[in-house]
Fold each of these.
Amino acid sequence: MASRLLQQMGYKADVTANGLEALKALERKAYDVILMDVQMPVMDGLEATRQIRARQKDPGVNPNFARPIMIIAMTANAMHGDREKCVTAGMDEYVPKPVRPEALQAALEGFAPKLGLKPEAAPEKVGSPQPPSPADHSPQMTRASSRSAALPPVDMSRLNEFSGGAADNLNELVTLYLKQTTEQLQQIAVALGEKDMATTARISHSCAGASATCGMMAIVPILRNLEHSSSAGDVAASNRYGKEAAAEFERIKIYFLEHPPLLSAA
């Protein structure tokens, strides 16, 4: 999702799956800015940042670490102390999820003069300032079923904001979201069947972040509850929330099947 948004702004970006892969990418190629997810498998964003900053102190090892590298934290856990942890690890800025296009654009443009950067094309101003959704940040269990029933499956204003109001962008974004979420829910089902709570929590966290960013707000509290229950090792609750998430995703798919003009209208 971030990659698509950066492309819309006129920037080029490469994507890696975890902090270790990010380090290997930096060894191969110089980068100006890193959007660093905090929660990742293998190596999280905090440790990856610490290792990058350590290597910058000895740039003779690899010239790609000799230049300034701006690291922007991206995390859905907007909890007290998170920003301090990111800054202590060596990050320069902090953008909470769900990612607001204007917040990400402001962060990039703030660093651009320091790095001599400019996008390949004039950046398109995307979105309008809106407060972040509290549903994406709650660390506590919520009444997911009752909340979801009261919410529409798709917040089209949020989806249009993220797609920049362009029909092609909207169609691409919906297709990407449906494909990615289908795969993630299948992975969650397998992990739950194997009672692999760590994998369930990690994938639920990722799926909730993408859902909130795209405006699928009714499924977010369910996925957050799934993340928290699996982190706590509560198998019964995790299985219940897994089924609720799958049911809510069916509601999302039905919404788009019943509103096909949304995918062809600007």
Amino acid sequence: MHWIFTIVKDKMNHFLPKSIFYSLKHGWKLRRVCFYTSTARTRERFVRTKLGSFWIGLSNLISISLLSLVYTTVFKIENMKNYTLYLGIGIVIWNALSTSISSASNLLIQNEQKIKNTNIHPIFYSVEEWLFQIQSFFQSFSLIIITLSILKLMLIPNLIIFGILPLLNFIIFIYWFPLLVCLIGVKFRDIYQLVPIMLQLIFLLSPILYMKENLGNLEWIINLNPIYLILDHIRDAILFGEIKIESILIIFLFNICGLYISIGSLNKSRKFLPFLL
């Protein structure tokens, strides 16, 4: 019985507040290196291009323009202006969410040699990827908001006044959830194939290309989808100046629990990572 108790205690130690705080503190110490390497990845991505990272926002802007034109024509949407605003903000946030999740499934696998041959805490790779995704998001998001504000001037004031808390939830979520996906992907390589399918299904079931009202009696389904709720809170705050404090606080607590579990899971898997890769 003693050895069973020892094993359980050893596993639970990884989820103790002291252990979680140590990992977060280590990630904070590595922030400058992570920021430098993530910025270098962005520069490398657009090397020898004239517009550089401006392409991140421009590609989204072109996609939004084409989708808006096609869907307003096909579905005969009368108010093209409102639909373009609704679609544009939804698409740019969804692209950031889906990219951060899909790229996480094989993050540690891609860094296999570094993990096996160095003593760097594995939180480095998750923080670096997180900063890379945040940089890409804000480079795209800022251009989209500035462009769409031509159609509605209140977008930027709404973002500043009402959008901070929803954006905070978004920033926390795109760290811990991809990290969990990453850790699961190390043990089960099928996750790499499954994640794009699940993301496509979530996208089609979420009112991003279509209005929430089109779901009719099935609108309650979106309340069970935390990925969409994070998107919806940001979009409602920017478009309508609405902030659902109670719902946002619930998502925030959900994020804190997710962050705690993901860091604890990383601590637990740390010593076994070289053998799993």
Amino acid sequence: MWRAAAESIGLFLLPFVLFALYLALRLRYPLALEHWTRGRVATLILAGLAAALIGMIAIVSTSPRGHGVYVPAHVENGVLIQGHIE
């Protein structure tokens, strides 16, 4: 669960990091408020949401799915049988 949340947050923040890197490479101070106008921030938010959504869809569509039914650990004839997928 934490991994999925961290990946989504990372993908959302990626456009902001790339924009700050772009400003730094152009020798501008990335933390100056004049570079972070409402229009740019709105565009970065939309790009971040799109990246997070596409990332979640990619993760869900490429993740392996279990085949069968999970049988939890149980005791048969005094012997512990580990949980497994049948």
Amino acid sequence: MNDFKKIIKKRLNQLTGRKIFKKKLPDLNSLNKILVISLYFRGDFLFHTTFLQTLKTILPNSAIDIWIKSRVKDIVFHDPRFNEILIFDDIKTASYNDSAYLNLKGKLNFLKRLRRTKYDLIIDLTGKYSTGIFTLFSVSKYSIGINYNFFGFCYDKFIELNSATEGGHLIDKYLSVIPKGFELTNSEWEKIKNNVQIKPYIYIDNDVKIYVKEKLKSIIEFEETPLITLHATSGWKAKELGSKVFAILIKYFISKEYNFVFIGDENDRNKLAEINTYLSNNEFDIEKHFLRLNFMESTELIRKSDLFIGSDSAPLHAAGAVDTPSIGIFGPTNPDFSRPIGDKHKIIYHQLPCSASNNRQYCTRNAGFTCPTIDCMKSITADEIINIIEELLPGFSVK
């Protein structure tokens, strides 16, 4: 049944993506003003950054604006690749942890802003019906877009792509928009790819680096041993590792005299309180081993660390961006879609009968939202993680 639905959806996308009056792709040298639409959460935005880096490599003299939601503004605020950052939140892009007001007046004013700018090119990497409509009425000279809601007709060049139901890493999928959209030959595209590292890109402000350096002074207890940063929560509960496993890891770190710190917000603080119930009194000082940092500060801390451990979430993808060795914990999501790229990044993933198939991003239990047991995560042990820690940290190299 799922395969039948996929075929029908694919066919509908093909039909609705056809444009009656097609424009010719402009000469790339004429694309002086470009807008990229990227409205997802931090993790998906980080997967877009490889696309953005590649776009800037191809068109170094073009002014690239980006339309984002405010939830990722800290990532792009100091990014030198962008000419202008446009923030407009009232577009719903996900079924969880996302909301948007109707705000018709705000939408109309934002559209007027796009029309006044008169972009040479708009690239829609979000692919919702609303972003398609904004693109259609923006009066840009040319547009390229993916679309999950059968609004491919809104673009001059529709790229058929379903990131959740086609095998392969999300970075590669978003990158594929460039050769298809710009009609590049295989040799042209391979030459471009050779000049870009296939990983997320994050630019960290110097003030953030100074702030984290000061914070580290209260964390580093043992000068000659590694610093390990951990993230105990995730975008949704089903992706979180059990508290008892974290408690065993903490005992291991203490026995090895490793420096370790948990990052996050108040949800993480609550998780640490739960972890502490599996430890003896006074064995684990939450305040000493927890830093509430914003995302860019957390990213800098991860960059300064010798190892990062966390579930499939934005901090794990940040580790991939700053080249810090990592252990990624996967369960309801398919690591082939979103794991950090490279040999220094290891994953733990137990495939069960209900796990995602090779060409799907999420498990058969709606990414764990409708799973009563979350056995995939419960089956992961502390011993597995410790074995990989010892593989990744055979010697000490505190940065």
